[in-house]
Amino acid sequence: MDGNLGRPGAIGTATPRVDGRLKVTGEARYASDFPLADPAFAFLATSAIARGRIADIDEGEARAVPGVLDILTFRNIGDAVKRTKLFSDGGYVGSTIMPLGSDRIFHDGQIVAVVLAETFEAAREGAHRLNLSYAPEAPSAGFDSPGAETVAARDVSSTFEDPAVGDAEAALATAAVTVDERYATPTQHHNPIELFTTSCAWSDGKLTVWEPSQNVTGLKYGLAEQLGIEPDNIRVVSPYIGGAFGSRGSLTQRTVLIAVAARRLNRPVKLVAMRYQGFTIATYRAETRHHIKLGADRDGKLVALVHEGEEVTSRPDNYKVAGTDASTRLYACPNVASKVSMVHADRNTPGFMRSPPEVPYLFALESAMDELAIALNINPVELRRRNDTDKEPIKGLPYTSRSLMACFDAAAKSFGWDRRTPQPGSMRDGDWLVGWGCATTMYPTQVAPAAARVTVTPQGSVKVQTAAHDIGTGAYTVVALTAADKLGVPVDKVIVELGDSDLPPAPVAGGSNTTASICNVVAKACEQIRAKIAAAAVGADSVFKGADAATLVLADGHLQGPGGTSEPLDKAVRRVSNGAIEVYAENIPHGAPPDGIAKLYQGHPALAGGAKLKDRIQFAFGAEFVEVRVHALTREVRAPRVVGAFAAGKIVDPTTAKSQLMGGLIWGVSSALHEATEIDRRVARYVNTDLAEYLIPVNADVEVADVILVPEDDRQVNDLGIKGLGELGNVGTNAAVANAVYHATGVRIRELPVRLEKLLDAPVAL
Ligand code: MOS
Asked: Is 163 a domain residue?
C-alpha cells in the first residue's frame, strides 16, 4: 500500500481493496460463516405447481427421517407472520405473497414448507420425503398467456407518471424519417456467488440475523413488522456480501420463516438455500417488451420519441421496471410520449437487478437509435451528437453535468471507430464477419440521507462506522480513502466497519448511491473532527495561536497551518481529548425530504436525484463500443473487444471504479449474447435453474475490456462531486452488441439474447 495517502488527495488515488487480503485468505466472514451454538438446519420445500392450492400435506415419512425436528407449513405456523407492505408501498418486503400464508400457490418454486433437522442432510431428506398433493389450476406464464392481466402503471400507482411532452404522434406523422419497431428482453436471474442464506438466533427475546443484505436497517425494521416485535430487539449482521445485484435489497420470505423456526425450536437455525431455489425464492429481472417510435428530420434531429414498455410481474404485486424516466430524457426531442404497463402472471415477484430500468429500456432505445442512424445514413456517434442536450426534454430541467459526447469521443478514439466502414458485412476478416457497434449508457445519480460515526485516537488510528454495505463493489475502500483524505492519516490506519444494523444507519446498497451517500457523510464527520482539532489548536499556546481555524488542515499525520506551521497529529488530538475524538454526523442531500434521517433510521432510504428532482436532473453517462465476430459458416458470435468511456463525477478509487465498470461491460456482453431464464410456458416454470447452464464469460471470451474514466467535476450533485457508477457499466452494452451484430451480418436482433440460431438467415454472403 502506498504509504503517503495520509493527505488530501487520497480520494482519487488508485488503491487496492482494503479488504482484499481478508477475502482471498478466507478470513472475511460471510453471513453463513458465523459460528452458531448448536444450530438446527433448515431446508426449504418448494411448490411443484405454479398456480392452485395445496390439497394435502403428508408429513409422516418426512418426520420419520432420523434427525428431523419439525416441519413448518401453512397449517401450523398460525399467525406468527404478520402481513406487511411491498417496499414500493412503504413496506420492506419484495413480495406480498405471505410466507406460508395459506394453501394458495402463486408461483412455481414458492416456499411451501421449512424442514428443520439436526443436520443439513436430514433436513434435505425430510424435505424430499414430504408428500404434498396439489389442486392445480392452469397458470399464466407471462406475455400472451391466457389469463395474464395487463394494467397501466399510472392506473395502479399514485406516484407514477408516464413522461410526456408535446404531441409525439402528430410529429411522427410529418417526420422526414421514422423508425417504428418492437424490442424484447428476457427473464434474467442474478446469481450472486453467495447463496441466499439466513441464520437466526434468539436470546432473551432478542434476535440476531446473519444474512447477506443490501439494507440491514430495512431488514431489521421489516422483520420486526413481520414478527410484531420492537425493531430494537433485532440486530442484522452482514459485513461481507458475496454479490447482490439487487437481489438482497428487500426482504424475501425466507428470513421471517427462519426467525420463526429458531423461536419454535429455541435454538439457532441456519438456512443455506439451494442454487435452484434462488430462482424462485428471491427476485429477478422481469422480461420486458418495448414499442419504440422515433421521428427525425433529414439532419437526424429527433422530432418525436414514443416509448411504450410492458413488463411481467407476479399476480399480486405491481413491481415496476419503468425505464422511461431515463429513455425519454436522454436526447433532445420536443415531442415525447411514453407508457409503462405491467402484465400480471403466475410468477414470483420480480425486482431489482443491476440497472433494473435502464438495461431493458435503453436496449430498446439504443437499438432504435442505431436503426435511425442507418435509415439516415449518419454515423451512429454523430447521431448522438446531433441529439445531445444539456436539458432534459420533458420539463426542460438542466443536467447538473453531462459528459456524454466527451465519453463517445474518448471511447471512439480508443476503439478506432473511424476505421469502420458502415456497410453490413464489409469488415470481414477471413471466415469471421466483423461488426462494430456502440451505444449510450446513463444511470441516475442518486444520493441518500446517511449517518456515520468517526473516531480518531492520538495514535492516529481512525475508525469509521456506518451500516452501509460492501456488496463486492469496494465500499470499504472508498470509505477508508475518504477518511484518509480528510484526516491526513495513511489509509491502512483507517478501520472501516459496515454491514451491521447496530451501526449508524446508511441507505440501501442500491441505485448506485453508496459511494456518494457514505463518502459525503464520512467527510462531514471528518471535517467536524478537523474543526475541533483546529479550534483547540488556535485557541491554545501553540504554533497555530491566533491563526484562522478554517485554514488548518490535517495532512501527512500532522496538523498544518499557514506559514509552514505544523505539529504531529497526536499532539493536536490530545489537546481535544486524551482518549479519542468521536463524531457522529448526518447528511441530508439535495432533494431529499427534511425527515430523511428519520426515514433512514427506519430503513427507508430516501434516494434523491436522477429524474426525480424538481429543479434539475442528475445522471452519469458513458459510451460503449463493442466488436463482434460472427463466423460466416457456423454463425457463432464472439465479442473479443469492448471499450467503454464513462464520466461519473469524482472517482474516489479508480481501481475499484474500473473494476465495477469492466464487470458491467463484460456482464452486459454475456447478458446480450447468452443470458435468459427459460420458462416452460405450459407450467410456468423456469427450466435452467443452475449455474451449469448460466454462461459466465471468462478472459478468453472478452479478450479486451477497456475502461476509460473521463474526468468530470460536478459539485452540484454533492460536496465531493461523486456521481456513483456501480450500475453504469452494464447499461447499453446489450444494444451495442446487437448493433455490432447488425453491422457484422445485416441481421437486426430485436429480441435478446442474440444467439446464433437467429443469425442463420443472415443476408450477408457466406
Ligand atoms: Mo441495484 S439493482 O440498484 O441493487
From this structure: no
Q: Where are the beta strands (DSSP E) in 405-488?
A: 432-444, 446-447, 450-456, 462-465
pLDDT at 9: 84
Nearest Cα to Cα of residue 286 among 251, 253, 315, 321 = 321
Task: Answer yes or no: do 404 and 475 share one domain.
Answer: no
- Asked whether residue 481 is domain-assigned, the answer is yes
pLDDT recorded at residue 98: 97
Is the Cβ–Cβ distance between 538 and 551 less than 8 Å?
Answer: no
CA of 214 to the centre of ligand 1 (A): 9
Residues 436 and 460 in one domain: no
Predicted confidence at residue 2, as pLDDT, reads 42
Q: Is 726 in the pocket of ligand 1 (CB under 6 A)?
A: no
Whole-number Å distance between alpha carbons of 2 and 302? 50
Give dist(CA 348, CA 406) in Å, integer.
Answer: 42
Is residue 27 in some structural domain? Answer: no
Task: Output the domain CATH number for residue 479.
Answer: 3.30.365.10
| Ligand 1 center–CA 249 separation, angstroms | 7
Cβ–ligand 1 distance for 728 under 6 Å, the answer no
Find the CATH number of the domain harbouring 78. 3.90.1170.50
Neighbours of 464 (CB within 10 A): 27
Q: How far is CA 15 from CA 11, 200, 392, 471, 482, in A?
A: 9, 36, 36, 18, 12
CA dihedral over 527, 528, 534, 537, signed as positive or negative = negative
**454 and 429 in one domain?**
no
Q: Which atom number of ligand 1 is nearest to the Cα of residue 355?
A: 2
Beta-bridge partners for 45: 113
Residue 332 lies in a domain: no
535-549 burial: b if 16+ Cβ within 10 Å, else e: ebbbeeebebeebeb
- Determine if ligand 1 sits within 6 Å of the CB of residue 351: no
- Which domain covers residue 574, as residue numbers? 448-595
- Picking from 16, 14, 10, 13, the residue whose alpha carbon sits closest to that of residue 555 is 10
Ligand 1 centroid distance, CA of 512 (Å):
7
Tell me which H or E stretch contains 533. helix 514-539
- 448 C-beta closer than 6 A to ligand 1: no
Cell of 581: 475524538
Distance of CA 353 from the midpoint of ligand 1 (Å): 6
Q: Do 481 and 428 belong to one domain?
A: no
DSSP H helical segments within 283-323, as ranges? none
* Catalytic residue flag (residue 727): yes
356: Cβ below 6 Å to ligand 1?
yes
Strands (E), 20-105: 40-46, 52-58, 68-72, 104-105
The best mutation among 88, 191, 352 to test binding of ligand 1, ranked by most ligand atoms within 8 Å of the C-beta, falls on 352
Burial class (CB in 10 A: 0-12, 13-18, 19+), 419: exposed
Retrieve residue 514's grid coordinates: 453508496
* Residue of 358, 366, 392, 727 marked active site: 727
Q: Give me the residues of the chain with pLDDT under 70, please.
A: 1-6, 765-766
Write the Ramachandran bin of 299: left for phi over 0, alpha for psi from -120 to 50, otherwise beta: alpha
Residue-level length of the chain: 766
- The domain tally of the chain equals 3
pLDDT of 292 reads 98
Q: Is the CB of 214 under 6 A from ligand 1?
A: yes
